Amino acid sequence: MTETTEQTEKFDLLYSETEDDLRAAVRSLLADRAGPQDLLARIETDSPYVPGLWKALAGDMGAAGLLVPEKLGGQGASHREAAVVLEELGRAVTPAPYLTSAVVATETLLALAGENATAAELLAGLASGRTVAVLAVPLSAAPDAEPPTASTVTGVADAGAADVLLVPRADGLYAVPAGEATVEPQTPLDLTRPLARVTTPAGSGTRIAGPDAARAAIRRGLLVGAGLLASEQLGLAEWCLEETVRHTRERHQFNRPVGSFQALKHRMAQLWLDVVGARAAARAAADALAGGSPDAPLTVAVAQVYCSRVAVRAAEECVQLHGGIGMTWEHPAHLALKRAKSDQIALGSAGRHQDVIAGLVGLPAPE
Q: Which residues pair with 197 in a beta bridge?
């Protein structure tokens, strides 16, 4: 056996003490400020965002700056810590522009910050939580897709919460203040992640990168977004499993807990195995991104293919095994199902990521 074949990359899938402490802090904040009943009361209002939550999470707790180096005003942490935050946001189905601003937009700017003072200045605002930036591409945009260059882009997630829009154009990437753009809300399936149609007039904003640099930076931002989206999907699936187990222990039929019926035991046991696998895939993606692994694109694609399906299945089981109450608007199970279905096509569908895997490992689909 050659030295090359003996070498295998090892991923650290365990949580550190720091990550566990961060999880506890974020979970406590969300339980206090954005519990299920708080969300159910807001999802049909003009804005699902909980007042003051972003300031507490992004600014006071410093979560928005986890990916930003200390020299640029951030926390100097890694994708592993950001993944933990997204797990908790997924568990609570929290309406917050964390994935779009603190991950996708931040990573896009980080790819440009070394050569561009405007990008570095924007990053300082993002890291402090004072500024929210959103990359003006559809939520469904995959990392390997060509960025849109039209003046109007539909399906942009969290655009209504943005202070700055990062707008791809034929001649590069522009930072456009939200006041110079037209943002028209669209009706999403997932009411906790608002979508909008964004129109930016020609000549607006400040150019921060040329075409080639912009394309590479956007690809990096979307790749990291897809990788950490798997952690959001993991958190959602974990909540669905835990809530379903809790309900089936408490719900009785024929004078016994419904969870004691063998058929339901089998379904929940299989779901537990799926969630364990999703945790391994999501943690591997976060660790690969944190360590700058050359296999990060492959690991991210694998995580998306697996975690997106597990999240949907967990949410479907949650709704079904709650019986009648699971079908009502008053129970939060429908929020989890809609987020899972929305996430299933966010940042590239499972099929798109399967094509990426096939290309990276040299297994093209049959013609």
A: 184
- Mean pLDDT for 58-72 is 94
What band does 82 get if pLDDT is binned at 50, 70 and 90? very high
Within 10 Å of residue 112's Cβ, how many Cβ atoms? 22
Helix (H) or strand (E) segment spanning residue 156:
strand 152-157
Model pTM score:
0.92
| Pairing between β-strand 133-135 and β-strand 164-169 as defined by DSSP bridges | parallel
User: How many CB atoms lie under 10 A from the CB of residue 24?
Assistant: 12
Torsion of CA 139, 142, 144, 149, to 10 degrees: -30
Compute the distance between CA of residue 8 and CA of residue 307 in angstroms, rounded to an integer.
23
Are 165 and 200 within 8 A, CB to CB? yes
Q: Does residue 259 carry a pLDDT above 70?
A: no
Pairing between strand 195-199 and 152-157?
A: antiparallel
Residue pair 44/78 in contact by the 8 Å Cβ criterion: no
User: Are 135 and 221 contacting, i.e. CB atoms less than 8 angstroms apart?
Assistant: yes
